[in-house]
Amino acid sequence: MACYVTCMVPGHASAQGVEGQNGELVQVIQSKKSFPETLKAFKAEVSKAGWSVLNVNNMAGVLSERGFTLHPVVILDVCSGTYSARILSNDDYRPISAFMPCRVSIYRTSDGKVFIARMNTNAFITMMPPEVAEVMSASDEEIAKVITKTVH
Fold first, then answer.
1. Among 22, 87, 130, 140, which residue has the least CB neighbours within 10 Å?
2. CATH 3.30.310.70: does it fit domain 4-151?
3. Residue 115: which residues within 8 A CB-CB, separation 6 or more?
4. Domain ranges in the chain?
5. What is the pTM of this model?
6. DSSP result, 84-139
7. pLDDT of residue 8
């Protein structure tokens, strides 16, 4: 089982041994690979799982153009058409699009460690209509598997 770091409030992180405990907003797992290797492996695992990378946002790169110096931070928008279509095909569920696509952040800290972070779907899934909750739970399980394969 992977050890996740969960963030309950900005600036506060605590190690948790179990993924998906309710209450935390973000789940973070450390990669055993370098930043470039983690980024490459994640993209490959996303593709193998039948998902798509819609956007790659190089935050450190964009901010460096504005005079800021940061360690690497890349935010990827990933999507499974199978899950997205189930939500977006229903007009009543379209407001959920504000949570889409799935966003995954890969970053390196000042001490050289590499992490993957994502939203903890379980923290708010109970607020969703049952069909949406089912779709989000299934997609969450898949992306968790992608991340686990990426970091090992």
1. 130
2. yes
3. 5, 28, 29, 30, 31, 106, 107, 108, 109
4. 4-151
5. 0.84
6. HHHHHTSGGGGGGGGG-SEEEEEEE-TTS-EEEEEE-GGGTGGGS-HHHHHHHHHH
7. 37
